[in-house]
Amino acid sequence: MSSSTDDRAAxxxxxxxxxxxxxxxxARMLMYGGPVLSWLWLNVGWSEQAALRLxxxxxxxxxxxxxxxxxxxxxxxxxxxxxWLLFATVxxxxxxxxxxxxxxxxxxxxxxxxxxxxALSMNKERPAEWLxxxxxxxxxxxxxxxxxxxxxxxxxxxxxxxxxxxxTRVEETVATTVLxxxxxxxxxxxxxxxxxxxxxxxxxxxxxWGFLTAAARVLYMGWGNWPEALMRVTNGAVPLTLLLLWxxxxxxxxxxxxxx
Amino acid sequence: MKRLNSHRAALIVTAIAVSAAxxxxxxxxxxxxxxxxxxxxxxxxxxxxxxxxxxxxxLIWEEDPAHAATVSWTTAEQPxxxxxxxxxxxxxxDVTKYRFHADATVGQYTDDEVRTWYNHxxxxxxxxxxxxxxxxxxxxxxxxxxxxVTGPEGDADFKLxxxxxxxxxRDARRTMNRRMRALLEEDPEILALAHGGDxxxxxxxxxxxxxxxxxxxxxxxxxxxxxxxxxxxxxxEAGGPLYDQIFNTPGKKGGNFYRTLIGEQFLLVTLNSxxxxxxxxxxxxxxxxxxxxxxxWQCANYHRPAYPAVxxxxxxxxxxxxxxxxxxxxxxxxxxxHTLKRTCPIRAGKKADDGVVYIGEGGLGVKQRTPxxxxxxxxxxxxxxxLHVQKLTVTKSMLTVESITxxxxxxxxxxxxxxxx
Lengths: 260, 421
Known about the structure:
The structure holds 2 protein chains of 2 kinds.
Chain A: H1 3-32, H2 35-44, H3 48-68, H4 75-95, H5 103-106, H6 108-121, H7 125-148, H8 152-166, H9 172-192, H10 200-221, H11 226-230, H12 234-245, H13 251-257
Helix pairs in contact in A: 1-3, 1-6, 1-12, 2-3, 2-4, 3-4, 4-6, 6-7, 7-9, 7-12, 8-9, 8-10, 10-12
Chain B: H1 2-27, E1 55-60, E2 69-75, E3 82-87, E4 100-103, E5 105-108, E6 117-123, E7 131-138, E8 141-142, E9 146-149, E10 158-163, H2 170-186, E11 190-195, H3 206-216, E12 229-231, H4 242-247, E13 258-262, E14 266-270, H5 280-291, E15 297-302, H6 316-319, H7 321-326, E16 331-334, E17 340-342, E18 346-347, E19 350-351, E20 357-360, E21 382-384, E22 388-394, E23 399-405, E24 410-416
Parallel strand pairs in B: 10-11, 11-12, 14-15, 15-16, 16-20
Antiparallel strand pairs in B: 1-2, 2-6, 3-4, 3-7, 5-6, 7-8, 7-9, 10-22, 13-14, 17-20, 17-21, 18-19, 22-23, 23-24
């Protein structure tokens, strides 16, 4: 595969993931309301109507941004998307209850992916690569910590997953033990992806696990829960982008292999 | 230059497209509540927490309200000795005349700033359907005389309140506490309040609890009758030790799920939607519902809804609803959404005459949201954006749930007859 093809695949993977995130976040806000509504209304003191207007406006804006991200000049849309996702992350941190201090890190792949997309579309590959590494490391590290702290939702995913996939009811103690192991593994790969080497196996595992755990939301509560799954698509797409970027030789290697 | 122009063009196109979309979205947003819908402030000041004077009183029911209860209070300083004196006759607060006493467990609330002390006096061996009069005493500082009525034995008729989400809007919380006191004063058959959780905005901050506890004094009637609380845990007090320190660890530590049997024929299962729903708690729920299949009325109380009026469904939908349907639960009480709701009867994800009805969503003192009343399960049900409390009337032939607004108006009435199990 030529390097330009790999680059194109990487950038389109990221474009697609950020666009899907826009659609999912917008759908979730329209269907259930989002953290910005709760924060502005309950914590900041806005009227419900004003907070609703802002969220609905943002939802429509995100839906327009989704196709604009596929344009060659995607940076203004990507900047707006990143800004909103970061704002929503701050709101979720302020209104969240269970270990909400982990929220900015847990959602790092989501709000950093559009920033990486801006860098990538401007041919700033090295900063883009590190934004992607930091984003996915934050997501895996904080989800790993949530697993080690035994996030009850994760326990229920394992119990339900056992029932659906293996037809066996997993005991809570077993699920808790498995969750601890998953958490430790998540933390380990989060640290590994920050090693300044192209650890393709690590990126491959993160992509696989990221997509699988995003899909678990649909497995758990059915197709009606699709926004929850799609909102997490960057958890798999970000390491996949790294993998695609790393699929071609480093510049030095390329020079060595194809001397002019 | 050409490159600069293309970037500028991209910026302009994006700005126009996104601005237009944002404007359309904002203009098409559904109507929400305005500032005029807020409740006016009261001017209440609760018992001052100072020295060892008992303040922030509450009475907690857990599994056996006919025979046991916990009376709890707060003191500013650590008392050397705290005691509850009580009797089945009024003694006008003369602590030497009460026939019974129970020493209280004393400990400090876990908080960096508010350094006050909890006092829990557990009393047991009580007689059913009996008025008990009591005084809290900490190092000689005594409260006024209060009283409460124990739960019934046998197949008895009674009334109960249900509500949740008393957080974030103190004015509204005080209004609803006054409403509950008024209900209790006009209808002495009301025995207790089952709380669906989210008492405070941040359950790990004693400052928030301090306000809630002081406001809770407003539920006491003018003649000193205390409204027992059957507590459920919400997501805003999901973490930290304060919830257990406030309510004396209802259910087992780390779980906070338990069953309350009021009389022989009314079962209330309090669940905790902040911990795994599908693990030990599902086992517990199934065991309780199976073992009590002969009980006429069966209800559940938990915080995060299976059939929400605003947000997305919680784990209850996957793990508890199948058990509710299997054992024909009468009503599931849910909070969290900050709105008033009653669903149609639901079975297997569809409207069904023999289904389970879901009531509540939390209106005890938080700003009310606009419900999404176009959801399928509200066809034949009710939604509204109003502060509220539910009053349950339990008789041998009918279970009635009235949703009562902060103004005292009955907004909705649901009635159901005993069902076969």
